[in-house]
């Protein structure tokens, strides 16, 4: 009972903060709305019983990605604040949003969900699965991360040399 | 092999002189250019001897061009009596004119080209007269038209002369349309274009199921174009723009007679087609009379002779029209001699006068260029019909059959032809008087340059004059009688035969006397002209036929070409469509290029729209 | 409504809002954050199905999506910063150089 209520609460929170993202002016406020959305999602994951995933959501998304984003927002020139929130495509975008939401709802709501089963999604089970059966993807992901690091350094280096 | 060589040798001359003539010098060109036709003439004589000995026509099948339908289309030559006469005329007089040209064209830079074209003409003309089927004849027909165009426009740097060549070719083509239609009808009716087969089919008791008159008239239209009858005669006077030997060979002796030859060769059709024969006789008579009237008022020596040729061709067609085919060929034969002599004589006069062609500026040349004068006088007497020269015999025969032939002869026809003969004598002697007699009317400088032509020219003139004098004693109609029976006579006209002969002589002498009287003293000529000034004006302007054609045909066609086809069809429609399509493409591209704004958000919006659309479609369809 | 259905609809909504946000907002950084939102929406549907079918592939895939999101942001932000420095503004409409 409480679980259902919490589920609805977190769902509403995520959608509400997403809308707030669209409407806020200052990028910092947008970032904080996004953090709220992510935290709500983490809550939903936890409510579903996937605790490892919930933890990863907070750690990676909120802890790394959004922190990075907030750093950048703080570093940039706030004089940009002068310009408006919305670009030229506000109205068409809005219409598109409504249409897309409607289509999604229509397309997704009617179907039947697959049969329910239960499983343990704890960290141990997760890591065992990851490192036993899906070790290849683990390695590939490591390679991806290395590539990202190299690319980031390359970008920074180019920036550095250009500035002299 | 012999018959094939007769046309092939001049063709070889064309190739040799055309390709290497310029490099190898004038002597080489002369030897090849004159020698090969002379060899052809010799071969023609040999073939003639063989024909006379054997009696049956020689036939040589050279090459089967195509074989479909019933009969194959062959390239074949035949040498019967008619072809023998024509071939001997073409090669004989042709060779003489080639020799004459070596003197006349001596200083022309295009010497090699000239002889090449002249040999090409001989090749095609021989194809025409030796051909066994209408296919070969038509090839020769078109080919002589081409050679005529090339030779009339020989000095093509002069735009007028080039235009004259074009006029000749185009007018010929108009006639050829009729010829082609006639050939198509013949092929459809008889199943073959072989002339022997066609003649046999029409001469047999059961002729093919086609209107002989229609075929006859269509073929005659072709003959009108080639032989310069009304209304397609307009090219011949303009064709005088070519060198004088060309005028002599092509537009007097040979090419223009091709029409007469063709109708004579297909005489069985005309024997059956009374209407077509009447048309031929009428057109021939009208042409003869009309051209003779114009010739009285012309002042260019070559134009007088050109209209005279048209008139004499009219005589020949009158003979064909009344069924006297052999007589037409007889007149063709005598005409070849005296007209070639006249034209070459005119060339000699022009040569002596350093290029002057207007008879009003000549006069008194008789003593200064005696050989030219004597030969010209003999030929003039021949064309006027003074016995016993050649022209008398052939013209008298024509007049006789114009009166007495049961298939078309009538007193009216005879009267028209008699008046035309009178006019012929009159204008020819007028020409003789104005050119050679009286006080000289030329400038002092021209008078200084007057000289007799070289032997290459005068020698030929002498030969032709002799031919004009004695050629009439060779009775061609009699020789051709196995092929062309003389037409039956109307009842009761036999008694008129001798009176007609006397009348012919009287006409000739009257013409001579009249010309002497009027033009002996030029003041009388001027007075006469002043009295009939209006008539004279019309005659001098050739009845305004060229202007009529220009107004009726040339200008409307040019207008249509410019306004309808060029402005409307080509520029507005075709160019407009293409430009319009290009403009449409550009505008569409311009509109479509608005998508590429460079703004990322637009692209994403479009992606969003695409996603919405595809989701909608997949979930709702 | 069934749990999974609700969560899937919510995921779709988040995705749509994120996509609309990219189209609508003018600030480049905000656009990036909307992209993150999209990714989260997709992740949500993935998680709900993974939980429902209770396979280990689902969880692993979710983890992979996390990693990819992280790598992506690590590159995207420096690029964006360079762009902003070159153009002196974060306004995406100033980046419209590839006009047609």
Any overview of this molecule?
- The complex is a heterotrimer of chains A (164), B (621) and C (100).
- Chain A has helices spanning 2-23, 27-48, 51-75, 90-109, 123-132, 135-162.
- Chain A is mostly helical and 164 residues long.
- Chain A has a domain at 1-78: Up-down Bundle (Four Helix Bundle (Hemerythrin (Met), subunit A)), CATH 1.20.120.
- Chain A is globular.
- Chain B has helices at 2-54, 81-104, 111-130, 134-152, 159-190, 195-203, 212-227, 235-238, 244-253, 258-265, 267-272, 274-296, 301-321, 325-352, 370-384, 390-404, 411-436, 444-449, 455-470, 476-479, 497-520, 522-531, 533-540, 545-593, 600-620, and strands at 58-67, 72-79.
- With 100 residues, chain C is mainly alpha-helical.
- Chain C has one domain (3-94): Helix Hairpins (Orthogonal Bundle).
- Chain C is built from three helices and no strands.
- Chain C has helices at 3-24, 28-53, 56-87.
- In chain C, helix 1 packs antiparallel against helix 2.
- Chains in contact: A-B, A-C, B-C.
- At the A-C interface, helix 1, helix 2, helix 3, helix 4 and helix 5 of A face helix 1, helix 2 and helix 3 of C.
List keywords for this structure.
heterotrimer; A: mainly alpha; Four Helix Bundle (Hemerythrin (Met), subunit A); globular; B: 621 residues; mainly alpha; two-stranded antiparallel ribbon; 25 helices; 75% helix; 3% strand
């Amino acid at each position: 009972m409480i679980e259902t209520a919490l589920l609805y609460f977190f769902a509403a929170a995520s959608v509400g903060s997403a809308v707030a993202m669209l409407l806020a002016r200052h990028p910092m406020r947008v970032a904080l709305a996004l953090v709220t959305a992510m935290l709500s999602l983490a809550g939903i994951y936890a409510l579903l019983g996937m605790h490892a995933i919930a933890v990863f959501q907070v750690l990676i998304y909120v802890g790394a990605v959004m922190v990075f984003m907030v750093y950048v927002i703080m570093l940039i020139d706030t004089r940009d604040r002068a310009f408006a929130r919305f670009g030229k495509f506000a109205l068409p975008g809005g219409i598109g949003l409504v249409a897309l939401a409607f289509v999604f709802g229509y397309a997704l709501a009617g179907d039947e969900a697959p049969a329910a089963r239960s499983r343990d999604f704890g960290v141990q089970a997760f890591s065992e699965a990851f490192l036993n059966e899906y070790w290849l993807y683990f390695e590939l992901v490591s390679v991806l991360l290395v590539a990202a690091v190299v690319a980031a350094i390359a970008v920074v280096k180019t920036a550095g040399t250009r500035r002299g | 092999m012999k018959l094939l060589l007769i046309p092939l040798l001049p063709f070889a001359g064309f190739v040799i002189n055309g390709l290497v003539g310029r490099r190898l010098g004038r002597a080489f060109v002369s030897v090849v250019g004159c020698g090969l036709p002379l060899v052809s003439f010799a071969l023609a004589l040999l073939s003639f001897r063989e024909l006379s000995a054997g009696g049956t026509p020689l036939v040589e099948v050279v090459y089967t061009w195509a074989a479909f339908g019933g009969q194959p289309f062959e390239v074949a030559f035949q040498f019967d009596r008619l072809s023998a006469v024509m071939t001997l005329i073409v090669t004989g007089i042709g060779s003489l004119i080639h020799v004459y040209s070596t003197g006349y064209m001596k200083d022309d830079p295009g010497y090699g080209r000239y002889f090449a074209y002249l040999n090409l003409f001989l090749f095609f003309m021989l194809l025409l007269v030796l051909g066994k089927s209408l296919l070969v004849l038509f090839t020769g027909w078109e080919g002589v038209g081409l050679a005529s165009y090339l030779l009339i426009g020989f000095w093509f740097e002069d735009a007028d002369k080039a235009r004259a060549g074009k006029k000749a070719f185009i007018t010929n083509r108009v006639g050829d349309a009729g010829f082609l239609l006639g050939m198509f009808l013949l092929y459809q009716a008889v199943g073959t274009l072989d002339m022997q087969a066609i003649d046999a089919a029409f001469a047999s008791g059961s002729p093919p199921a086609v209107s002989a008159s229609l075929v006859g008239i269509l073929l005659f239209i072709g003959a009108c174009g080639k032989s310069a009858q009304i209304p397609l005669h307009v090219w011949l006077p303009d064709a005088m723009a070519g060198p004088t030997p060309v005028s002599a060979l092509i537009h007097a002796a040979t090419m223009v007679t091709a029409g007469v030859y063709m109708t004579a060769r297909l005489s069985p059709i005309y024997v059956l087609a009374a209407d077509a024969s009447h048309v031929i006789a009428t057109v021939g008579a009208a042409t003869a009379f009309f051209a003779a009237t114009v010739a009285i008022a012309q002042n260019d020596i070559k134009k007088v002779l050109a209209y005279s040729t048209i008139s004499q061709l009219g005589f020949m067609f009158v003979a064909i029209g009344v069924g006297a085919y052999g007589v037409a060929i007889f007149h063709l034969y005598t005409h070849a001699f005296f007209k070639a002599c006249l034209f070459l004589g005119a060339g000699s006069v022009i040569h002596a006068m350093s290029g002057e062609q207007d008879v009003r500026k000549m006069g008194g040349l008789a003593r200064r260029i005696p050989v030219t004068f004597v030969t010209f006088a003999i030929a003039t007497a021949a064309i006027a019909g003074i016995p016993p020269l050649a022209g008398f015999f052939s013209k008298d025969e024509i007049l006789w059959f114009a009166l007495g032939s049961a298939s078309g002869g009538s007193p009216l026809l005879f009267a028209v032809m008699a008046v035309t003969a009178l006019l012929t004598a009159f204008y020819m002697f007028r020409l003789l008087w104005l050119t050679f007699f009286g006080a000289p009317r030329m400038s002092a400088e021209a008078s200084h340059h007057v000289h007799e032509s070289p032997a290459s020219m005068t020698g030929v003139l002498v030969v032709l004059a002799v031919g004009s004098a004695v050629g009439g004693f060779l009775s061609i109609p009699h020789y051709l009688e196995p092929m062309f029976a003389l037409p039956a006579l109307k009842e009761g006209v036999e008694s008129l035969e001798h009176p007609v002969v006397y009348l012919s002589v009287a006409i000739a002498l009257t013409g001579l006397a009249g010309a002497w009287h009027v033009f002996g003293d030029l003041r009388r000529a001027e007075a006469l002209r002043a009295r009939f000034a209006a008539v004279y004006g019309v005659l001098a302007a050739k009845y305004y036929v060229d202007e009529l054609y220009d107004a009726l045909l040339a200008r409307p066609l040019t207008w249509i070409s410019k306004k309808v086809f060029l402005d409307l069809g080509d520029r507005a429609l075709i160019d407009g469509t293409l430009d319009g399509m290009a403009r449409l493409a550009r505008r569409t591209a311009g509109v479509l290029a608005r998508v590429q704004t460079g703004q990322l958000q637009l692209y994403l919006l479009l992606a969003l729209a695409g996603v919405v659309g595809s989701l909608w479609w997949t979930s709702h369809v | 409504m069934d749990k999974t259905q609700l969560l899937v609809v919510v995921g779709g909504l988040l995705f749509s809002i994120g996509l609309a946000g990219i189209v609508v907002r003018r600030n480049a950084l905000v656009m990036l954050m909307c992209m993150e939102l999209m990714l989260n929406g997709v992740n949500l549907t993935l998680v709900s199905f993974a939980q429902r079918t209770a396979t280990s592939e689902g969880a692993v895939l979710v983890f992979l999506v996390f990693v990819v999101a992280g790598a992506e942001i690590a590159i995207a932000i420096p690029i964006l910063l360079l762009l902003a420095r070159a153009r002196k503004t974060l306004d995406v409409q100033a980046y419209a150089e590839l006009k047609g």
